[in-house]
Amino acid sequence: MPSTAPAAPATAPAAPALADVTASDSTLRRFLHGLPGVDAVGLEARAASLGTRSIKTTAKAYAIDLAISMVDLTTLEGADTPGKVRALGAKAAHPDPTDRTTPTTAAVCVYPDMVAVAKEAVAGSGVKVASVATAFPAGRAALDVKLADVRDAVAAGADEIDMVIDRGAFLSGHYLKVYDEIVAVKETCGTSARLKVIFETGELSTYDNIRRASWLGMLAGADFIKTSTGKVAVNATPANTLLMLEAVRDFRAQTGVQVGVKPAGGIRTTKDAVKFLVLVNETAGEDWLDNHWFRFGASSLLNDLLMQRQKLATGRYSGPDYVTVD
Q: What is the rounded distance in angstroms from the CA atom of residue 177 to the CA atom of residue 266?
């Protein structure tokens, strides 16, 4: 289910009302700390309430195919090999080899040194190649090292770059440093790669910080804001994703610029995926129900989606060997 959405602009222009908020550390801090505080109880209650919605039959089939088309199929391990990446690419291009009506996934996501292998593996399929960069997952490196990481990935053919912010700088209140780093990475991506900015929400401690990080990333030109690396204990949750969806909705209302959202880590079942799609529809709206604007960073999710898809088609669950084990 490839996206038909137009490509995002290379750099998201700030609205006139926001043009001066990044002029200095103090103006940026004033703006971010002037955002409305998050009602944690209300946020979690709304996320829980939306999570109780259920969909059936035709709508469920549509939701499963939509979710498959939104998966960034990912391998980010020290033991990754070219063979493993090629197999991942083949699965992204043909998630169910026995049913060619199954949508492709949105992308495969790999380390920069595996981009060329992934690019070859998905050639002609429409599947994008994403690459983590900027000293993923900790982000603990000098800026020139981070930018070199990005340049390598883009030169190898990456369509998307997933960068991590410097959480230490953010939590210390050095917002302009984080902003400048995102801007530099965005410039290094050029016009050929979209930028996803990872906050590692599990390390940001508060919902207020997640809201501030969301606006900071969008002001700096992020094409997507992303919850997590998948490498910490707390990753994507309905509440933190709802908060980020509210942020992109409000940012577009104020600036006219649309930004995507990617929850990553901990989303494993079709039931989970449907809950997140309901969050998208009820919070940001139908414009985000497209893999150009919403992604799942959850490789294990794909297997369950495929199992549920076959159950709808045949009336029975497949055997344990129906899907490949990642």
A: 30
